[in-house]
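User: Once you have settled down, look closely at the record that follows, taking as long as you need, and be ready to discuss the fold:
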Amino acid sequence: MRKRKLTAANLQKRDDGAFFERLYDLENLKQKKLEYGRSSPYRHVYIDPACDEDRLRKVLQELETHLTLSFKETDLFKVLQSVDIASITAESGDVTCENLMALRDDLYSEKFRKSIQTITGCPPLDSRV
């Protein structure tokens, strides 16, 4: 896959979240829906970049510093698993994880879920995993 030239215009950050605003652009969603429909052997879509790499590095640092991670391995994949990020709140004393919380809020947002529905054609998503 050929990398596109990144410009300030197509990488405009959201003021209130982790994802780039172009992720929600109607033309981008239409293009991703086409890519999803043509993908094989399994339906998938590649969104690059979806958010700022520096912010993702900060999320990883917050995970490693403030949360317990456990390594899980199956015959299909290897992952570092943390607690359910939906359970992290400012009231629980996890306010130091502001980048993680911004990413979590975006992933659970109505706007993001509707974007996934638009791309995949799946039924309405709710905020539960």
Q: What stands out?
A: Residues 53-66 form the longest helix (14 residues). The beta strands are 70-73, 78-81. Residues 1-15 have pLDDT under 50 and may be disordered.
